Amino acid sequence: MASGDDSPIFEDDESPPYSLEKMTDLVAVWDVALSDGVHKIEFEHGTTSGKRVVYVDGKEEIRKEWMFKLVGKETFYVGAAKTKATINIDAISGFAYEYTLEINGRSLKKYMENRSKTTNTWILHMDGENFRVVLEKDTMDVWCNGKKMETAGEFVDDGTETHFSIGNHDCYIKAVSSGKRKEGIIHTLIVDNREIPETAVNEF
């Protein structure tokens, strides 16, 4: 950095929820996709001070100073559905540590693999805004941009339709059998009578 340059790192009016100076012990960052959105989990571990700090979406959830035991775990909750998350701290060798994140008792990788089987996600761009629509297949709950939607289910000739609205747009998720046991039920999002491909940005 040039000497005499006192300008802040963040030049826009909106400063971050925490300063970079405080994040010197940052050892791990994870992005966790839940039905209500993608959440950023950050973990600080001071191996000399024993400090442990957990941030979820920039907000401090746990702060412990002067922990004499440097290994262990920290459990907290993420998102609107209060999903249980645990950071495991394990010593590898000497003063090297490994940090792993579990969601609902499963490794993040296993949780996300299972989640891809139990949810469908669509990203839409309508009226100048982005919308992330998530269907939880086991409950048929529909989430949009972090909010659980009011829905109405309806039986139709070839399956079911789950109706909801985004602004003044009529939406429904159609569930029909694929006719193949391995594929199971196929879920399709329809917005204003137009089929939306899964996880692609669509302009309206």
The CATH architecture of the largest domain can be named as Beta Barrel
Subunit organisation of the chains:
single chain
The major β-sheet equals: 5 strands, mixed
Helix content: under 10%
Number of domains: 2
Q: Write down the CATH class of the largest domain.
A: Mainly Beta
- List low-confidence stretches: 1-21, 200-204
According to DSSP, the number of beta strands is 18
What is the CATH T-level topology of the largest domain? Lipocalin
Q: Determine Rg (CA atoms, Å).
A: 22 Å
- The computed structural class is mainly beta
The largest beta-sheet arranges its strands as 12-11-10-9-18
Per DSSP, the total helix count is 1
In short:
It comes from Aotus nancymaae (Ma's night monkey). With 204 residues, the chain is mainly beta. The chain contains 1 helix and 18 strands.
Helix and strand topology:
Blueprint: E1 26-34, E2 37-45, E3 52-56, E4 59-64, E5 72-78, E6 83-93, E7 96-103, E8 106-107, H1 108-118, E9 119-126, E10 129-136, E11 141-144, E12 147-148, E13 152-156, E14 159-166, E15 169-177, E16 185-191, E17 194-196, E18 201-203
Parallel strand pairs: 9-18
Antiparallel strand pairs: 1-2, 2-3, 3-4, 5-6, 6-7, 7-8, 9-10, 10-11, 11-12, 13-14, 14-15, 15-16, 16-17
Family: Belongs to the FAIM1 family.
Protein name: Fas apoptotic inhibitory molecule 1
InterPro entries: FAIM1, FAIM1_dom_sf
